[in-house]
Design goal:
The structure holds three protein chains of three kinds. Chain A is of the alpha+beta class. Chain A is 39% helix and 13% strand. In chain A, the strands form four sheets. In chain A, strands 2-1-6-3-4-5 form a six-stranded mixed sheet, with helices on both faces. A six-stranded mixed sheet of chain A has the order 8-7-12-9-10-11, sandwiched between helices. Chain B folds into three domains: 175 residues, FAD/NAD(P)-binding domain (3-Layer(bba) Sandwich), CATH 3.50.50.60; 112 residues, FAD/NAD(P)-binding domain (3-Layer(bba) Sandwich), CATH 3.50.50.60; 89 residues, 2-Layer Sandwich (Enolase-like, domain 1), CATH 3.30.390.30. Chain B has a five-stranded parallel sheet with strand order 3-2-1-7-19. Chain B has a five-stranded parallel sheet with strand order 9-16-10-11-12, with helices on one face. The chains are: A alpha+beta, B alpha/beta, C alpha+beta. The structure holds flavin-adenine dinucleotide (FAD) and iron/sulfur cluster. Flavin-adenine dinucleotide binds next to helix 1, strand 2, helix 2, helix 5 and helix 7 of chain B.
């Protein structure tokens, strides 16, 4: 009920697959998706294993509510050890792939080993095939989807795949599903590439049932109504996530030119309004909005690039519509690299999807490269003749394509900012935590966010905690530890349900509880759910400690800790991590060294 | 107005019902020579597999259905027609006068001219009576030879296999379904059948059948001989037109009819398997012995008999078939049109195949294996002669986009 | 006057709530593969078109059926399949020029939209009003009906 109670385990080295019953004890302790996959990961591999080695394990996981009528039920997570961070990686995606995997009858797909030759997986319910992908190797994500559907004459297949970036080990390569949804962060696509796995194609017709259909449908109707009438939801539907640009700009939390500034003079040329406004020649960037599976929010943007724009004027193959700018992409290709040309941003966004890369990390790495260029550390000889100056739109799009195709300087960018900056002897230029680049929120203006970045188990990430309201209210580090910890647990729980975090625009824990409780066996209270989240957080932490990370990795770059914000509400302030971190460890029940105490582990059954 | 219909199959019955609606005050008499209430041959395979009983084959439910409609169903056989006096002679001795006559007598199975085809244990599978005899002989484990792997043969094949017989299929043509599938599709279906334990001999011919130890022995031209308890013959049919022998009604492969379903003789119409009417794809006259054509013919013939002037745009040759779980379908000029273009996509390992045939930028024919969703749009595209425009090159590259093309084109058209 | 499903593709976000609602209503599970309504997406999601039976007056499926398994529900105007009568011959699936009656391999029968007996769940589930259930006179179905006419072999009967 709601869980399919089946996992599909594929050993790529042996070319074998088996269907196993789901460990229900674990399911009840970790729900599904992020939590459950973390548990399976921990049990299936040695955390010390090299992320790019066959010993790493790659898990695609759905949640108990994935593929149900609950709003936003299209989520799945890709969990593995990430090559960008050498820590546990958990990337969450929407689209239709996750629900399809569930409809095929699986809660989890576990991939082990490394195929001797490139392969892809073809799954139709119980029918599982590991098929040669020689012809697909070197193809883009978009070509791959088309090829596989045609090959199997099945337009109903849903596909998650990698581009050349993933094949060649770009450290922030992602897994893209349904053309433009992505399990974006931490380089999960590179792990897939290292396994010689090009794609997973799935069609399912088993369906999903719930424990108490009547109660479930009632809960679903009520929670959907809440979403429907919520202001936050309406904003997401109308403007998409890029509505955030204005908030951050006004606030002074918009990282600009590799965090040298926190406000961007060109913000209103790349914000949500700009996407909706017609240019003098009549072109409007935004075409429509689009939902992931089951989602009644539909924050996704579908956009197109002006055909006369320099990036595509001679490239008709890009004259179609595709996934448009989300806030993080707009921030990373706009303010962070100083570019204000919305068509260039959109094109670079297309390239990210087409070649399978994380825009945040790409933007962060490019920003670092631009800083190195302006410092004179690297020059045109290194950058294939391109002037990597902040604000250069061509630098953005050309480098995006080079990295996607793993050509020229793109191979260096493909290292991610940490390794690249170390290579050039300037590690301080990399704006990252545990090797992963920041999202579009400056920790000097948003202290709780800073703590969240520093402690996130997958490296800098804005989506693993939620202290937004507290940060907006108060720009000091005081009192942020507890809400940060609590929100991390809550978010970990939500990430494990199969639903989307954005529902929190209208839902509290109770809304998740009543849907879970009607759908899944067992009596679900809010406490039990939160405990699942806290357990997950601590398990991830244990994975990282076992992998060799320490409290020393729970930190931020000097630029945020020592250089005061130049403007905005936090003008003159730095991030007060030194205050927050000890409080945080305490709130977590961890030792001063950031290790979960015996008592904590016992309490959580770890 | 007196309407007489010869034949109580789908064409005749749909015509009778349509007449009743279109011409409420007329008398409608249907003469049928089979003992059962009007039934559908198409349902025979499902009777053979036991998924339905006799009643499940009936065209209409309710014992008083026809009485309520005031349609007179007579069990008798037409033996002759006097088109001058407008009179049908009946085997029972009586006769029926008509103002308008519909010939909907279908066809009958014919066996090849081979020695031994009259032996006991050799059966057709065309009527309910045949089906009962086939069922009696096709016990689980029995050795059964099916002669003919055309459309009807393949339908019967499925039913026989489901009864658990040890089945061998013999087809003279070089592939299964020679008139419904091309080489690629025919080969896939053959491989599929073999993988399900059915022996398939194509390009094979039975020389003679003889009795042997209480069973039958078939001598093949190849020299091989086969033993069987039952031989089912599905090698062909011929129209039921003997009662028209002395009339001016023109007959070729069937009763020739014009676009009003009227024969060469005024007030004599024909419909269904017996009629050779306009073919949508070629404009020529063809017998399309399929259920949808019988139903359309019956309806339109009746509207015209009732005094209307309804033109028939021609029937589209189309079939859908389930061969041991492998669904195949064919439409129109699947073999290609002159000067046309072909798009193909095949996955032999997974038994999927799609072939589209175009003439200019219109779809004129198609073959599909393993496709069960939205197949009907193929008919829609062909029959409305939708101009595919920019979709055609895309379909040539990837025929699977046919549903997308359909939606896009029809939305733009509308 | 019968009510009909009015479909406005402009409003469709392709969330598939309708497909889940349909499969849940008819099969008791969330299973878009068994939905009678289907969303088709074009050009990377730029457009999405909800597609299902229009309960056309021509009723191709109904007339093609050899065993009278499809009948007209007088109250709703829906053409409904009687599962216990259907033998699964699939003739209706090729007869329907809209492709909106489909074979279900699992049951060996065909499935099509039956308007849920007058309370279509797809319309109830649609969050954007892309699918509504309204009086037939003013639905956009006229367009599709018009097209249906062209398929029809009897232009003016
Ligand atoms: C086993 C089998 C499976 C089939 N499966 C399919 C399928 O899947 N799809 C499909 O489209 N088609 C199928 N068909 C073909 C389909 O059944 C025919 O096309 C359809 O029955 C034609 O209808 P009809 O009314 O023209 O002729 P018939 O159904 O043959 O009816 C004619 C009737 O007239 C009677 N009759 C003949 N002569 C006289 C006379 N002189 N006096 C009185 N009565 C007379 C006959 O006995 C018969 O009862 C199948 C046929 C068979 C045998
Ligand atoms: S599949 Fe069922 S409903 Fe369709 S024509 Fe055959 S018997 Fe009738």
């Amino acid at each position: 009920m709601s869980w399919q109670k089946k996992i599909l385990r594929v050993n790529l080295s042996e070319g074998s697959s088996s269907i196993e019953p789901l460990n229900m004890e674990w399911a009840k302790a970790y729900l599904g998706e992020r939590g459950l996959a973390s548990k399976y990961l921990m049990e299936s591999m040695d955390p010390k294993a090299d992320a790019m080695s066959p010993e790493n394990v790659l898990i695609f996981a759905t949640g108990p509510l994935t593929g149900t009528m609950a709003s936003t039920s299209g989520r799945y997570a890709v969990v593995t050890k990430g090559p960008l961070t050498n820590a546990i990686a958990c990337s969450n995606s929407g689209g239709k792939f996750g629900a399809e995997l569930k409809f095929a009858g699986y809660d989890l797909l576990i991939l082990e080993g490394r195929a001797p030759d490139p392969v892809y997986l073809h799954i139709v319910n119980d029918h599982v095939e590991i098929l040669p992908a020689r012809e697909l190797w070197g193809c883009t994500v978009w070509q791959t989807e088309e090829w596989i559907k045609a090959r199997h004459q099945n337009p109903l297949l849903k596909i998650a795949s990698i581009g050349v970036a993933g094949e060649r080990g770009v450290r922030f390569a992602c897994v893209v599903n349904d053309l433009h949804r992505a399990a974006g962060r931490s380089g999960v696509g590179a792990v897939m590439g290292a396994k010689n796995l090009k794609a997973v194609a799935v069609h399912g017709s088993v369906g999903v049932t719930v424990k108490d259909p009547k109660r479930f449908m009632k809960a679903v109707a009520e929670t959907k109504d809440l979403l429907e009438s919520s202001r936050g939801r309406k904003g997401l539907t109308k403007y998409g996530t890029n509505a955030m640009m204005d908030t951050m700009q006004e606030f002074g939390g918009l990282p600009t030119r590799n965090f040298h500034e926190v406000q961007f003079e060109g913000a209103d040329r790349v914000n949500a309004r700009a996407m909706m406004t017609s240019k003098p020649n009549g072109h409007v960037n935004l075409l429509t909005n689009k939902a992931c599976f089951g989602c009644t929010i539909a924050c996704g943007r579908i956009a197109h690039i002006d055909e006369r724009h320099f990036t595509i004027v001679n490239r008709k193959e890009y004259w179609h519509a595709s996934g448009g700018l989300e806030y993080e992409t707009a921030f990373a290709f706009g303010p962070l690299v100083g570019v204000d040309d919305i068509d260039a941003l959109t094109f670079a966004g297309f390239l990210m999807n087409e070649h399978g890369m994380d825009p945040i990390s790409f933007g962060g790495t490019l920003a670092a490269a631009m800083e190195l260029y302006e410092m004179g550390v690297i020059g045109k000889d290194d950058t294939d003749g391109i002037a990597l100056e902040f604000g250069n739109a061509e630098a953005l799009t050309v480098m995006a394509e080079k990295t996607g195709k793993y050509e020229g300087f793109g191979q260096i960018l493909g290292l991610g900012s940490r390794l690249m900056c170390e290579k050039y002897g300037h590690p301080e230029i990399s704006m990252s935590v545990k090797g992963q680049e920041f999202a579009g929120y400056d920790s000097r203006a948003m202290q709780g966010m800073g703590l969240g970045y520093a402690t996130s188990n997958r490296g800098a990430c804005h989506l693993k905690h939620d202290v937004f309201a507290e940060d907006m209210e108060d720009q000091s580090g005081r009192g942020k530890a507890v809400p940060c910890k609590e929100s991390q647990d809550r978010v970990a729980m939500i990430d494990s349900t199969g639903l989307c975090l954005f529902t929190t625009a209208a839902w509290g824990v109770e809304e998740f509880r009543k849907q879970i409780d009607a759908a899944c066996e067992g009596d679900w209270t809010e406490e039990r759910l939160i405990a699942c989240g806290e357990r997950t957080w601590n398990l991830e932490r244990q994975f990282n400690l076992a992998a060799g990370l320490t409290a020393a990795d729970d930190t931020l770059p000097k630029r945020l800790l020592e250089v005061p914000a130049p403007s905005g509400v936090a003008k003159g302030k730095v991030c007060q991590l030194d205050i927050m971190l000890p409080e945080y460890y305490e709130a977590r029940g961890w030792t001063k060294d950031g290790v979960p105490s015996e008592q904590t582990r016992k309490r959580l059954g770890l | 107005m007196k309407h007489v219909i010869i034949g109580a199959g789908p064409a005749g019955i749909i015509a009778a019902e349509t007449l009743r609606r279109a011409d409420p005050r007329s008398t409608v008499t249907v003469v049928g020579d089979e003992p059962e209430p009007p039934y559908s041959r198409m349902a025979i395979p499902y009777l053979l597999t036991g998924s339905i009983g006799d009643a499940g084959t009936h065209l209409r439910r309710g014992a008083d259905h026809f009485a309520k409609l005031a349609v007179d169903i007579r069990r008798d056989r037409a033996t002759g027609v006097d088109v001058g006096d407008r009179r049908v002679a009946l085997a029972g001795g009586g006769h029926l006068d008509y103002d308008r006559l519909l010939i909907a007598s279908g066809s009958h199975a014919v066996r090849p001219p081979i020695a031994g085809m009259d032996l006991q244990g050799v059966e057709n599978c065309w009527t309910l009576a045949d089906a009962r005899r086939v069922a009696a002989g096709a016990r689980a484990g029995a050795r059964v030879v099916l002669m003919g792997a055309g459309f009807i043969g393949c339908i019967v094949l499925e039913a026989l296999a489901k009864r658990g017989v040890e089945l061998t299929v013999i087809e003279m043509g070089e592939r299964m379904l020679p008139r419904m599938m091309d080489d690629v599709g025919g080969e896939m279906i053959k491989r599929w059948c073999e993988s399900k334990g059915v022996r398939v001999l194509t390009g094979a011919r039975v020389g003679a059948v003889s009795a042997a130890d209480g069973g039958l022995e078939l001598a093949l031209d190849s020299g091989e001989s086969l033993r069987a308890e039952l031989v089912v013959c599905a090698t062909g049919v011929s129209p039921n037109v003997d009662f028209l022998a002395d009339t001016a009604v023109r007959i070729e492969d069937g009763v020739l009819v014009d676009e009003y379903l009227c024969s060469s003789v005024a007030d004599v119409y024909a419909a269904g398997d017996v009629a050779q009417g306009p073919d949508f794809s070629t404009g020529e006259r063809r017998v399309h012995a399929i259920q949808p054509t019988a139903s359309e013919h019956g309806r339109i013939a009746a509207l015209n008999m009732a005094g209307g002037r309804t033109r028939f745009r021609g029937s589209l040759s189309m079939n859908v078939l389930n061969t041991l779980g492998l669904v195949s379908s064919s439409f129109g000029l699947w073999m290609g049109a002159e000067g046309g273009e072909t798009a193909r996509a095949a996955d032999a390992e997974r038994f999927r195949y799609l072939r589209l045939e175009f003439q200019a930028d219109r779809l004129v024919g198609a073959l599909a294996l393993g496709l069960t969703q939205h197949v009907g749009v193929i008919r829609g595209l062909i029959q409305t002669r939708v101009r595919l425009g920019q979709w055609k090159p895309q379909l040539l590259r990837d025929p699977l986009l046919v549903m997308d093309a359909y939606l896009d084109c029809t939305r733009r058209r509308a | 006057m019968h009510k009909s499903l009015l479909i406005d593709p402009e409003k469709c976000t392709s969330c598939l709530q309708c497909e889940m609602a349909c499969s849940f209503e008819h099969e008791g599970v969330f299973n878009p593969a068994k939905s009678r309504i289907k969303i088709f997406e074009f050009e990377h999601g730029r457009r999405a078109i909800p597609y299902t039976c229009t309960q056309c007056a021509e009723a191709w499926c109904l007339y093609a059926c050899p065993v009278e398994a499809i009948s007209l529900n007088m109250e709703t105007g829906a053409k409904e399949v009687a599962e216990d009568v259907c033998v699964g011959c699939k003739v209706c699936t090729i007869a329907c020029p809209f492709g909106t009656i489909n074979y279900n391999q699992d049951t060996g029968k065909v499935i099509k939209c039956d308007l849920c007996g007058g309370d279509p769940q797809c319309a109830a589930a649609c969050p954007t009003g892309a699918i509504t259930y309204v009086d037939a006179d003013w639905t956009g179905y006229d367009r599709m009906r018009e097209w249906a006419q062209k398929t029809h072999s009897q232009p003016s009967a």
